[in-house]
């Protein structure tokens, strides 16, 4: 590919005139704009099916009914109060009283049964539909991602997509599941209680209802503020996730430059941005809860005060039982409305998360591959014309890439584009594939403007083979079959499809090596390692299997060694026959047979014609050829050069391993290609047979979470809040005091009720006592506001700090892992990013507001039971007997939800990883028109989860319903036994009311604890995941116990080194390798893919440790030295430079790890790497933003920045791993000059496939099968006419 040219600065060559017209601006804006979607709560249910809506409808009815049934007991309570008063005044016989008591107790049993059924049905319905609707949103979001145009992804990181599809959808699922049922039940209780109050005494109820307005104002204002803060926090979290994804995907670069600390601090800056609005949201919430509870207690005082006035006034016909009914109804309704607030927070957060997702879902893509709009031609010849094309990338609107470009590409011919980086070569492919729209001019296919053609149909006529083949985690046959998608051939019988697959494999020179694999075409890509050449030939077979009319080759061989290049190039020459073929190449030897070679510079054509004609012109093309030509100095002429080249073709262009023994075949063909041994980006992993950014359509195995005790996890989480321990202790004390409010209120409540039952002769005392108790309620209200706000604020602060530290430390732990940790499939970039996004948020389930509420409820329960036991132990003991049953139900429900969460985590992590990686490889997906196939695979994974979770949902709902209905049984038992004691005059009215109120409200408090069970279950699982991550050992990266390396000479010695990757111990990569590299020497490593070249560099960097033997630097075994100080003397420049979000300066300074580097040092490093002039020519200079993964720079520019990053640390050993293979001739020349200058005075080891770059090396080692087969200078090796001689001849252009 042309140096990641698409979203590029395009260097100094491009015009930077900001003179775009309004129409150009509109075209650019349409490609990147994403209007924000305003979503209300009901808008979340946009994708609910009819069945979902029916279930939701019934669930709403059941939830409201469950809530509405609760206040009915207040009527019974009021009636029984009047009955008790009649017994106390001897106006009713004991038998009549007992009959009345029994009748009301039976009503309580009926209420319990009704509550059990309604709560169970409502909870099961909402949990099921919540999961189903959130799954639909996941599916629709992923579908929307797949239909977006490529420009949309230029400014959107894959990590942000992961955050949206995991953390945000989890927030939505949480907000539309059991939380809705709890909210509706609370509201049902509130409304029904107030209706009962109005029926009994509308005057008193109307006065008490004044507080309702206050409650609504408090809830409305605070909820609106919380929504704003939540949106801001989610945006910052998304940006942080994108950065984390970039860093984890380029972990080898991070480790090589010891940049973990610098990048971790950068990630933490995004976390701090999210922390502040998150903290404001939580503080707003706790203030809302405190204010609502305060208003409720003020309401109690007002109700008793006015009720007593109505009672003494006989005109109002108000009885003591009526006042009690009204007050209990108001108390119960207000209490439940207060409980709505915590669950309402989840609803408002869900709306904020949905707004983010629906913004992408609702976005209209200007280049939608799923659209049916456009013409589909009956026949395609392949004539392509570009007329007056002007192109600007939307991500860099001030840079003009192509201006008035005119190109004719005849059908059936091969046209090659060459030129320096940023000249617009890959832009032509991007325009032909319609990845972007040009701002002016037309691109035509057979005389039809491609803008008028159906996009999916157009892409199905074209096949693209790029520099890095993206293979799917499926069998080889399936990978090739994916090329048939949309061609009509994929619907044929399987036997016929297999014939197409094998024919394409033969044309791509892949059939023989595929048959040699253990399972042949059924070999799974994820279970074997293929060399770079083998992967590329499979990609070629996939591209040609549908017999495309147009074939696009974008640097298809640049990353391969000479041997693999020969095989692949032979395959490409074969398949290009009779097709319109467009080639982009930096290795000019691959395009010399093209019918027409077009030389681009500054986005314009400077030369064109066949190879021979251009060579005769003595122009730009000839200079480029000569720059790549290998000099044959002091070498006797070959008697028959053509014969030598033909002999080379026969030996190297058959198959990689035809001439090897079976054992050797196993050793090489099943080994990761050499580039993958080191790979600075996640797409090139050593022991990963598939790219980290590949698209898994089959689930990988997932790691098992170790069993940890609750206490272990609690101590682990508490460690994140160590600095906040004083705040936590203060919050604990405030929670204990706040928990005592309810028991105190119950005593005051009993006193007030007893006062209201005074006879008419004592109405004066009644009024005085009522005034006194009403003032007590005023005091309790103010104390409640202070205590709840205080404990809530303290826990909210501690919670946000804990989440911040958990994310920060988890990220640091990931960065400190050894490289083999990232080689494992379960630790893919997508999975780790999902863990940082979603898992840490779930840790808050046992902290913050939830922890404070649980503490308050626990103290409330204990204090209530203690007071009840003190006041009347008989009745208290009978009622308490039901409490263990309630606690058992809650405990079992937490256990069920924990198991449920563990299963859900497995499915959603796999699917989220697939989504993240699909977005990262969106160009491959778009080129193959694989959107539907990828989406179906994702949808299958998602839907399987819901089917397996139906039974656990029902079980947990039954247990939760039991915990909610048992309080009514407790009331029935309490009324029956307490009434019996009262009837026998063992208990006074005050004692009965105290015991009864304490136990009833205590039991209800126990029930509210279990409403937090989902949060606790998720938090327990998330804590176990984090604990396992933190417990994972890191042997190399975190090793600081060895000898500190203060200086280094650069003497390198390999003694009998054997190496195998831990994931493939049966496949040796190096076998008894011996090398000696003297200080200051320039040494080159060459050889076929899989020979172990890059493994040597990986071992020197201590990405891995040798299986046997020793590696010594300056006579010291590198396993005995301090890793960090050792790496400070080494610098690595790889094939694909990994740059990170931030400025050019930030990326260069990553190489030194010190913030006190002078400006002169930075400038010196930039001058030595030939990048200084380019940087200072930019408007922002060193402060220019490079974009995600350096996407704003061209390949050559990125590589020179990477060299500057390497040189600023003044290394004694410089490692060059294919540092110029992906560059065009002009960029290669500039970069090679920089590398040659950088190597002076340093021990330099270069891995190279382009042999022209290493012919000046002091020693060249030719590796094969993990050992050295030849060594010497270029001249010496050429005279020997061995393997090196054959490799050189194959690359010569003359």
UniProtKB/TrEMBL annotation:
<feature type="transmembrane region" description="Helical">
    <location>
        <begin position="180"/>
        <end position="198"/>
    </location>
</feature>
<dbReference type="GO" id="GO:0005743">
    <property type="term" value="C:mitochondrial inner membrane"/>
</dbReference>
<dbReference type="GO" id="GO:0016887">
    <property type="term" value="F:ATP hydrolysis activity"/>
</dbReference>
<comment type="similarity">
    <text>Belongs to the ABC transporter superfamily. ABCB family. Multidrug resistance exporter (TC 3.A.1.201) subfamily.</text>
</comment>
<dbReference type="InterPro" id="IPR017871">
    <property type="entry name" value="ABC_transporter-like_CS"/>
</dbReference>
<protein>
    <recommendedName>
        <fullName>ABC multidrug transporter MDR2</fullName>
    </recommendedName>
</protein>
<dbReference type="GO" id="GO:0090374">
    <property type="term" value="P:oligopeptide export from mitochondrion"/>
</dbReference>
<dbReference type="Pfam" id="PF00664">
    <property type="entry name" value="ABC_membrane"/>
</dbReference>
<dbReference type="GO" id="GO:0005524">
    <property type="term" value="F:ATP binding"/>
</dbReference>
<keyword id="KW-1133">Transmembrane helix</keyword>
<dbReference type="InterPro" id="IPR027417">
    <property type="entry name" value="P-loop_NTPase"/>
</dbReference>
<dbReference type="InterPro" id="IPR011527">
    <property type="entry name" value="ABC1_TM_dom"/>
</dbReference>
<keyword id="KW-0547">Nucleotide-binding</keyword>
<feature type="domain" description="ABC transporter">
    <location>
        <begin position="384"/>
        <end position="627"/>
    </location>
</feature>
<keyword id="KW-0812">Transmembrane</keyword>
<feature type="domain" description="ABC transmembrane type-1">
    <location>
        <begin position="729"/>
        <end position="1018"/>
    </location>
</feature>
<keyword id="KW-0813">Transport</keyword>
<feature type="region of interest" description="Disordered">
    <location>
        <begin position="1"/>
        <end position="21"/>
    </location>
</feature>
<feature type="transmembrane region" description="Helical">
    <location>
        <begin position="843"/>
        <end position="869"/>
    </location>
</feature>
<feature type="transmembrane region" description="Helical">
    <location>
        <begin position="957"/>
        <end position="978"/>
    </location>
</feature>
<dbReference type="InterPro" id="IPR003439">
    <property type="entry name" value="ABC_transporter-like_ATP-bd"/>
</dbReference>
<feature type="transmembrane region" description="Helical">
    <location>
        <begin position="204"/>
        <end position="229"/>
    </location>
</feature>
<feature type="transmembrane region" description="Helical">
    <location>
        <begin position="107"/>
        <end position="128"/>
    </location>
</feature>
<keyword id="KW-0067">ATP-binding</keyword>
<feature type="domain" description="ABC transporter">
    <location>
        <begin position="1052"/>
        <end position="1290"/>
    </location>
</feature>
<feature type="transmembrane region" description="Helical">
    <location>
        <begin position="53"/>
        <end position="77"/>
    </location>
</feature>
<feature type="transmembrane region" description="Helical">
    <location>
        <begin position="875"/>
        <end position="896"/>
    </location>
</feature>
<dbReference type="GO" id="GO:0015421">
    <property type="term" value="F:ABC-type oligopeptide transporter activity"/>
</dbReference>
<dbReference type="Pfam" id="PF00005">
    <property type="entry name" value="ABC_tran"/>
</dbReference>
<dbReference type="InterPro" id="IPR039421">
    <property type="entry name" value="Type_1_exporter"/>
</dbReference>
<feature type="transmembrane region" description="Helical">
    <location>
        <begin position="727"/>
        <end position="753"/>
    </location>
</feature>
<feature type="transmembrane region" description="Helical">
    <location>
        <begin position="283"/>
        <end position="300"/>
    </location>
</feature>
<feature type="compositionally biased region" description="Polar residues">
    <location>
        <begin position="11"/>
        <end position="21"/>
    </location>
</feature>
<feature type="domain" description="ABC transmembrane type-1">
    <location>
        <begin position="58"/>
        <end position="349"/>
    </location>
</feature>
<dbReference type="InterPro" id="IPR003593">
    <property type="entry name" value="AAA+_ATPase"/>
</dbReference>
<keyword id="KW-0472">Membrane</keyword>
<dbReference type="InterPro" id="IPR036640">
    <property type="entry name" value="ABC1_TM_sf"/>
</dbReference>
<feature type="transmembrane region" description="Helical">
    <location>
        <begin position="320"/>
        <end position="338"/>
    </location>
</feature>
<feature type="transmembrane region" description="Helical">
    <location>
        <begin position="773"/>
        <end position="797"/>
    </location>
</feature>
């Amino acid at each position: 590919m042309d140096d990641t040219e698409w979203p590029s600065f395009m260097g100094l060559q491009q015009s930077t005139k900001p003179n775009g017209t309004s129409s150009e601006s509109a075209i650019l804006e349409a490609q990147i704009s994403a209007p924000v979607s305003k979503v209300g709560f009901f808008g979340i249910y946009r994708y609910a099916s009819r069945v979902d809506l029916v279930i939701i409808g019934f669930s709403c009815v059941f939830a409201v009914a469950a809530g509405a049934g609760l206040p009915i007991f207040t009527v019974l309570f009021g009636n029984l109060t009047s009955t008790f008063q009649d017994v106390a005044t001897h106006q009713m016989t004991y038998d009549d009283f007992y009959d009345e008591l029994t009748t009301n107790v039976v009503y309580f049993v009926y209420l319990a049964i009704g509550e059990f059924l309604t709560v169970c049905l409502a909870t099961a319905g909402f949990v099921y539909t919540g999961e189903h609707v959130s799954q639909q949103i996941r599916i629709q979001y992923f579908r929307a991602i797949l239909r977006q145009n490529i420009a949309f992804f230029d400014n959107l990181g894959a990590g942000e997509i992961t955050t949206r599809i995991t953390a945000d959808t989890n927030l939505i699922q949480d907000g539309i599941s059991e939380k809705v049922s709890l909210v509706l039940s609370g509201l049902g209780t509130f409304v029904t209680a107030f209706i009962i109050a109005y029926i009994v005494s509308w005057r008193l109820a109307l006065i008490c209802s004044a507080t309702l307005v206050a409650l609504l104002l408090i809830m409305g204002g605070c909820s609106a503020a919380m929504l704003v803060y939540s949106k801001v926090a989610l945006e910052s979290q998304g940006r942080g996730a994108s950065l984390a994804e970039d860093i984890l995907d380029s972990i080898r670069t991070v480790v090589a430059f010891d940049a973990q600390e610098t990048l971790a601090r950068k990630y933490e800056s995004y976390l701090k941005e999210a922390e502040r609005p998150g903290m404001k949201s939580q503080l707003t919430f706790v203030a809302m809860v405190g204010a609502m509870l305060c208003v409720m207690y003020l309401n109690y005082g007002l109700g008793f005060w006015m009720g007593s006035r109505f009672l003494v006034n006989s005109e109002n016909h108000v009885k003591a039982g009526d006042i009690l009914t009204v007050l209990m109804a108001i108390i119960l309704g207000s209490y439940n409305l207060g409980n709505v607030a915590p669950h309402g927070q989840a609803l408002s957060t869900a709306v904020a998360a949905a707004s983010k997702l629906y913004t992408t879902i609702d976005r209209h893509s200007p280049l939608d591959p799923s659209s049916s709009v456009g013409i589909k031609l009956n026949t395609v010849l392949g004539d392509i014309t570009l007329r007056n094309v002007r192109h600007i990338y939307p991500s860099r609107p001030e840079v003009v890439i192509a201006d008035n470009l005119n190109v004719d590409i005849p059908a059936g011919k091969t046209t090659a584009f060459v030129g320096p980086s940023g000249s617009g070569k890959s832009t032509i492919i991007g325009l032909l594939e319609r990845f972007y729209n040009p701002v002016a001019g037309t691109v035509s296919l057979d005389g039809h403007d491609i803008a008028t053609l159906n996009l999916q149909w157009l892409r199905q006529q074209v096949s693209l083979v790029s520099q890095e083949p993206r293979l799917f985690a499926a069998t080889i046959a399936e990978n090739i079959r994916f090329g048939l998608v949309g061609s009509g051939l994929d619907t044929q019988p399987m036997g016929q499809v297999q014939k197409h697959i094998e024919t394409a494999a033969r044309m791509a020179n892949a059939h023989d090596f595929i048959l040699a694999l253990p399972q042949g075409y059924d070999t799974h890509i994820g279970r074997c390692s293929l060399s770079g050449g083998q992967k590329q030939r499979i990609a070629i077979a996939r591209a040609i299997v549908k017999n495309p009319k147009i074939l696009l080759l974008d640097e298809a061989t640049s990353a391969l060694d000479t041997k693999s290049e020969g095989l692949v190039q032979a395959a490409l020459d074969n398949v290009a026959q009779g097709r319109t073929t467009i080639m982009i190449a930096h290795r000019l030897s691959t395009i010399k047979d093209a019918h027409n070679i077009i030389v681009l510079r500054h986005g314009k054509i400077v030369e064109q014609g066949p190879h021979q004609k251009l060579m005769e012109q003595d122009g730009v093309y000839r200079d480029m050829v000569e720059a790549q030509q290998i000099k044959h100095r002091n070498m006797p002429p070959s008697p028959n050069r053509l014969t030598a080249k033909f002999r080379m073709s026969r030996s190297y262009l058959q198959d990689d391993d035809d001439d090897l023994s079976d054992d050797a075949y196993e050793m090489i063909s099943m080994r990761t290609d050499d580039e993958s041994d080191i790979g600075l980006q996640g797409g090139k992993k050593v022991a990963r047979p598939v790219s980290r950014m590949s698209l898994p359509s089959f689930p990988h195995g997932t790691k098992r979470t170790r069993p940890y005790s609750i206490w272990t996890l609690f101590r682990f989480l508490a460690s994140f809040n160590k600095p906040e321990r004083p705040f936590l202790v203060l919050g604990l004390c405030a929670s204990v005091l706040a928990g005592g409010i309810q028991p105190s209120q119950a005593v005051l409540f009993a006193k007030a009720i007893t006062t209201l039952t005074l006879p008419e002769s004592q109405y004066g005392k009644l009024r005085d006592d009522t005034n006194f108790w009403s003032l007590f309620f005023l005091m309790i209200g103010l104390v409640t506001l202070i205590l709840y706000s205080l404990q809530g604020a303290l826990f909210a602060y501690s919670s946000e700090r804990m989440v911040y530290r958990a994310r920060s430390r988890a990220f640091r732990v990931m960065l400190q892992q050894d490289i083999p940790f990232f080689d494992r499939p379960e630790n893919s970039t997508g999975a780790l990013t999902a863990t940082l996004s979603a898992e840490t948020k779930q840790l808050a389930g046992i902290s913050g507001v939830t922890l404070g509420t649980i503490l308050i409820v626990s103290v409330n329960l204990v204090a209530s039971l203690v007071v009840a036991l003190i006041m009347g132990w008989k009745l208290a003991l009978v009622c308490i007997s039901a409490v263990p049953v309630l606690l058992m139900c809650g405990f079992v429900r937490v256990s069920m939800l924990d198991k449920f969460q563990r299963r859900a985590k497995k499915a959603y992590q796999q699917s989220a990883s697939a989504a993240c990686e699909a977005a990262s490889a969106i160009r491959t997906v778009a080129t193959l028109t694989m959107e539907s196939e990828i989406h179906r695979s994702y949808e299958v994974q998602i839907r399987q989860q819901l089917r397996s979770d139906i039974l656990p949902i029902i079980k947990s709902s039954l247990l939760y319903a039991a915990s909610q209905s048992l309080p009514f049984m407790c009331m029935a038992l309490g009324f029956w036994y307490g009434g019996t004691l009262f009837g026998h005059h063992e208990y006074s009215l005050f004692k009965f009311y105290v015991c009864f109120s304490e136990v009833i409200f205590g039991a209800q408090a126990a029930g509210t604890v279990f409403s937090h069970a989902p949060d606790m279950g998720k938090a327990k699982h998330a804590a176990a995941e984090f604990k396992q991550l933190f417990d994972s050992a890191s042997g190399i990266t975190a090793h600081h116990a060895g000898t500190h390396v203060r200086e280094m000479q650069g003497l390198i010695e390999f003694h009998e080194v054997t190496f195998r990757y831990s994931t493939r111990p049966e496949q040796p990569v190096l076998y008894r390798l011996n090398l000696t590299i003297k200080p200051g020497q320039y040494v080159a490593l060459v050889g076929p893919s899989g020979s172990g070249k890059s493994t040597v560099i990986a071992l020197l960097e201590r990405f891995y440790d040798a299986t046997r033997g020793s590696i010594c630097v300056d006579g010291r075994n590198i396993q005995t030295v301090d890793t960090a100080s050792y790496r400070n003397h080494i610098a690595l420049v790889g094939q694909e430079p990994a740059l990170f979000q931030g400025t050019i300066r930030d990326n260069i300074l990553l190489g030194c790890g010190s913030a006190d580097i002078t400006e002169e040092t930075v400038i010196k490093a930039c001058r030595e790497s030939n990048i200084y002039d380019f940087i200072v020519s930019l408007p922002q200079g060193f402060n220019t933003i490079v974009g995600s993964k350096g996407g704003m720079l061209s390949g050559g520019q990125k590589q020179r920045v990477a060299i500057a990053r390497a040189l600023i640390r003044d290394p004694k050993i410089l490692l060059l791993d294919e540092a110029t293979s992906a560059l065009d001739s002009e960029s290669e020349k500039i970069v090679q000059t920089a590398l040659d200058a950088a190597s002076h005075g340093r021990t330099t080891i270069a891995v190279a496939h382009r042999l022209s770059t290493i012919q000046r090396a002091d020693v060249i080692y030719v590796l094969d099968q993990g050992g050295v087969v030849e060594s010497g200078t270029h001249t010496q090796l050429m005279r020997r006419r061995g393997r090196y001689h054959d490799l050189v001849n194959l690359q010569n252009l003359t």
